[in-house]
Amino acid sequence: DNHSKPNTVLDLISDTLKMEIDQGEHNVEGKLSIMHFMKEAPKIKPRQYSIASSSLESPGVIDICFRNHSFFSGKMLNGFCTSYLRHIGEQSKVDSTAACANVAVRYANFAPPARLDSPLLMIAAGSGIAPFRAFLHERKFLKYKHSVAHGIGVREILGDAVLLLGVRCLTELPYVELLNQAWEEAGVRVIITVEEKGPSVQCPHTLSKDIQVHFGASILDWLDWHSAEVFARFIQNEQGRMYMCGGASGFGMACTRKLASIALRRGSSEIIGSNADNDINQREWIARMIQQQLLFEDVADT
After folding, report:
1. Cβ count within 10 A of residue 80
2. Helical pair 176-186 and 130-150, crossing angle rounded to 10 deg
3. How would you write the chain as a 3-class SS string?
4. Mind listing the pLDDT tens digit for each residue in 161-182?
């Protein structure tokens, strides 16, 4: 097999037919045996999506969040799974019974803290907001349930909570209505960092005055600017919980390392005199926080 690996199924068929002709296996009809195709075709990798709905608020319903994926490989192509999800989503608007997909649910410990008064720091970028959409819905549901049962307001029920969300531009901002209601309905402060230095086009969204927006900044910048607040409210506080949704080797790891750096610089580590930027010390801090269930990660390589 000396030919280069094909990028797409169409490339595979084209390359295989060309190879058979070059080898003298002339096939006038240009047919490709199904066995040959099955042997050569790469296996479809499983796609993992974070659940974006609360089982308390919506029992028996699973929502997922995805962005249509396109890429260039000789020509513009659409993502295999996101195209399928978009297709069944469009079908469901016409006939909900006709659009269905087989899924497997994997249970994990990436869930809101049991105590509503626990300080909560949630960090995500773009569609990484998916699990935190579920958090907001669940927090809103439990707040209402507790306030009805005990007759007390949101300030007495819910602990300090921050959703730190990064986007490339405001036009990409997901779930605007939910974010606008986050403070009033769920007691969550929403802070948005936007890569572009200012709106390149008129923003189609009207954002609540409760939402903070920082242009020309990243989540790492915000964590640097507010390191004292992050340390005091979420790292040093024994009831504090930190949640990260992002890539295991990119954005997600960079943010957890930034939290480790803040913790080590401000003396929360048991390692006396440690270097905050030392790789081993940061990894040890992250592992310890995960083991103590103070830091939770929903990360995956794409």
Report:
1. 14
2. 30
3. CCCCCCCCHHHHHHHHHHHHHHCCCCCCCCCCCHHHHHHHCCCCCCCCCCECCCCCCCCCCCCECCCCCEEECCCEEECHHHHHHHHHHHHHHHCCCCCCCCCCCCCCCCCCCCCCCCCEEEEEEHHHHHHHHHHHHHHHHHHHHHHHHHCCCHHHHCCCEEEEEEECCHHHCCCHHHHHHHHHHHCCEEEEEECCCCCCCCCCCCCCCCCEEEECCCHHHHHHHCHHHHHHHHHCCCCCEEEEEECCCCHHHHHHHHHHHHHHHCCCCCCCCCCCCCHHHHHHHHHHHHHCCCEEEEECCC
4. 999 999 998 888 889 999 999 9
What pLDDT, on a 0 to 100 scale, did the predictor assign at position 106? 79
The pTM score is 0.77
For residue 296, the model assigns a pLDDT of: 93
In degrees and rounded to multiples of 5, residue 232 shows phi and psi of -70, -40
Please give the structure tokens belonging to residue 177: 């209505």
Query: Quick one: pLDDT at residue 152?
Result: 57
Q: Extract the residue ranges of the chain whose pLDDT is less than 50.
A: 1-6, 21-22, 24-28, 268-269, 272-273, 302
